Amino acid sequence: MTGRIAGKVCVVTGAGSGIGRATAQRLAAEGGHVLCADINGDSAAATADEIRSAGGSAASRAVDVADPRAVDAMIADAVERWGQLDVLVNNAGVNIPGVLHEVSDEVIDRTLAVNVKGQIYGCRAAIPHMLDRNGSIINISSVNGVVSEPFLAVYSASKGASVMLTKGVALDYAKRGIRCNVVCPGWVDTPINYAHAEMLGGLQKVYDTIDSFQPIGRPGEPSEIANVVLFLASDEASLMTGSVVLVDGGMTSQ
Length: 254
Ligand SMILES: NC(=O)c1ccc[n+]([C@@H]2O[C@H](COP(=O)([O-])OP(=O)(O)OC[C@H]3O[C@@H](n4cnc5c(N)ncnc54)[C@H](O)[C@@H]3O)[C@@H](O)[C@H]2O)c1
Fold this sequence. Notes:
Elements: E1 9-13, H1 18-29, E2 33-38, H2 41-53, E3 57-62, H3 68-82, E4 87-90, H4 105-130, E5 135-140, H5 153-173, E6 178-185, H6 194-199, H7 203-208, H8 222-233, E7 244-247
Parallel strand pairs: 1-2, 1-4, 2-3, 4-5, 5-6, 6-7
This protein binds nicotinamide-adenine-dinucleotide (NAD).
């Protein structure tokens, strides 16, 4: 087997769409065995089918990352299939925008359950299988982990927590053979942004004016985030742990 992560066993959450789908495909194209997990089991299965059709190694599983026992079972599934665990990409997320004083209890609870607890559960379940064997955990936060935007107070709170979870895990396991890094994408062209775009006047308006907040002047493509995740998953990033990696077309340089 050849590739930049040849033979590594990977779990990617939220693998049925967008950044997770592109990441699962990229990891598999570079020789990884990839368990594609998503709350939408059909979409996860479709990603795994695409990977196998392209000659890669993949399986799929329906998982709600807000359910700790489902996350434990997801990690156990990967270890049972392929005998080890090398890479976890905590990518699944929700973005339910709103004006804070109008946001419901349900939206607050769901955002924190998926975006924060889901990543904590993933790390907790994966770490015992990675100890002393060169594991890599990549959490997907957002530029909103370091700067906020209108209507995103709850989402930003959750993404800030992802950054600090990453630093905590990085410190605790730096001498135990586990690296943990966090990727903070700018605006990437995926469905998670559609509700936020509506509140900003529609997706077309956002894209017409994207220069005003994302200096590179266009939305990112999921593959451009996947490329960075691949690097962090690989041994090429062997000195990186606790790093906050902004992949944002210059957004946070302003
Ligand atoms: N697209 C962007 O501009 C952008 C920017 C910064 C950060 N992000 C982050 O990237 C990650 C991926 O988002 P995306 O842009 O690919 O969006 P997306 O909507 O295309 O994909 C999100 C996927 O997560 C899955 N998911 C949602 N809740 C889940 C749960 N409880 N358990 C398991 N799976 C669940 C969805 O079914 C979907 O397949 C998210 O964490 C998001 O916050 C995205």
